[in-house]
Amino acid sequence: MKTRFLTNSAGAGVHHSGNWVQSDAELGGNLNRQWSFMSGIDAMWPGVAWMQAIGVVRSDGSDARLLLHHYDLNPIYFADPFAQPSPDGKVVIFNSNMGGSGRYDLFVAEVPLR
Q: Which of 36, 48, 52, 96 has its CB 3.0 to 4.6 Å from that of 72, i.e. a possible disulfide?
C-alpha cells in the first residue's frame, strides 16, 4: 500500500506535506487513512502526475484529489509552491508567481470538506 503513495510523487518533482493533527494519527488509529498534501512543480519532471498542481491523497495512495493549479512557471527549487496545510486541514497555503508575474505571493485556498 505504501508504494502506491510513493508512485503518486514520481520522485523529486513533487513536494509532500502533512500534519499530525489528524484524528487517525492517535494511538491505535488507522495511519493509512491520513491525508498528505502534494504540490507538483513544472514540466521539468515529465513523469509527475501533479504538474503545476496541488492536491491531497491518503497515505495508502487512495482517494487522490486535485485542489488547485498554482501556475508557477519557474522550475527552480525556490519557485516550488511548497503547499502547507493548516493544523485543522481547512486551508492550504502555497507560494506562486502566477504565470511568471515577476514576484512571488503567498496564496490561501480553502480545502473542500468532501
A: 96
